[in-house]
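Action item from last meeting closed. Structure (89 res):
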């Protein structure tokens, strides 16, 4: 799956950016995150990246992820639409 294909409700692992100085070297995998927003274009004019808000599954706060649309991400679970409960069932 690519970063540009993410959708709200998806659980995924978004690889760390190569130049991220805040990467925790003891972590083997990036954290599992729930995607909160659809990818939107970066507001900086020449940038071709996309941005999504996501929250770490283990109770983390929302975080903005900025990546190029073709960057790979690891899908954990696809988004599912919730059905409204039916009365009488």
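Sequence:
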């Amino acid at each position: 799956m690519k970063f540009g294909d993410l959708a709200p409700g998806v659980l995924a692992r978004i690889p760390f950016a190569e130049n991220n100085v805040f990467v925790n070297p003891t972590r083997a995998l990036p954290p599992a995150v729930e995607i909160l927003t659809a990818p939107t274009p970066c507001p900086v004019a020449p940038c071709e990246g996309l941005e999504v808000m996501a929250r770490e599954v283990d109770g983390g706060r929302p975080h903005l992820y900025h990546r190029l649309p073709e960057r790979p991400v690891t899908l954990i679970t696809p988004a599912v639409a919730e059905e409204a409960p039916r009365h009488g069932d």
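Note appended to the action item: The mean pLDDT is 84.
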